[in-house]
């Protein structure tokens, strides 16, 4: 396996998503919880730590690694023109090695997923089903004839779903149950916000995308139109989540989520909207931490909420 093709930096959001799913389950046990004297079973905590680590290995190195490798494989002709120094077009990695890596990561990931289902005692292999679905989305994102990445809406939502919903569901399935609509609705809302975040990566490549026939949202709506779609999807979805948390009586979590949203709106007003091309990296670096901690706060709220009351 050639690590550069798996792009390790892209594993981080998936690992975070698994952690959020574990929190949302309400059934993750610490090795020794300083805040809860009833959560200090060291052996149970060690087992849950091991489960979580394996789920992160599944979501990060294996299935994200598979996704990145297959994406580079199907982009090899474009990369040969635009970025000929990359591993595949430069010949640093042979065709046979790439094909082996794709199958190794995919089949290895599915094997780990089934192992997690057995470990969690699932009657239905939920983690395996999620992994198969996610792998299929990864394939149609990169490969013809569908090649979702050519369409701004479908491609960016596929990214948002893959980086937020799927790892959340994986983490929650390992430690709990996906037995309420809210466990699907809130991650899907956050994936719509993820669509907006994905747009930021398209601003700098708008001219190249237009020449290559890629209908990214900045190409379809212009930079000015796309920047408002980006800001609106990120802000409105989080307002919707905060409203839901308020509606179930979790006012402190709702207020915390709004507090995390305010800096994001500030950075939209001062960085994204004035010049999304020049400020794309700075905006992401400034705004993203507040967004991902908002996801974690939401997951913790669901994990602590008593839905039977």
Question: Could you characterize what this model shows?
Answer:
- The chain is an all-alpha fold.
- The protein is built from 12 helices and no strands.
- The protein has helices at about 5, 10-25, 40-75, 75-80, 95-120, 125-140, 150-175, 180-200, 205-210, 215-245, 250-270, 280-305.
What are the defining features of this structure?
single chain, 309 residues, mainly alpha, 0% strand
Quaternary organisation of the protein chains: single chain
Q: How much of the sequence is in beta strands?
A: under 5%
Binned, the helix content reads over 70%
Unreliable stretches (pLDDT < 50, length at least 5) are none
Gross geometry: globular
Secondary structure: number of strands: 0
Map the helices and strands.
Blueprint: H1 3-6, H2 12-25, H3 42-74, H4 76-82, H5 95-120, H6 126-142, H7 152-175, H8 182-200, H9 206-212, H10 217-247, H11 251-272, H12 280-304
Helix pairs in contact: 2-3, 2-7, 2-12, 3-5, 3-6, 3-7, 5-6, 6-7, 7-8, 8-10, 8-12, 10-11, 11-12
Summarize the structure.
With 309 residues, the chain is mainly alpha-helical. It has helices at 3-6, 12-25, 42-74, 76-82, 95-120, 126-142, 152-175, 182-200, 206-212, 217-247, 251-272, 280-304.
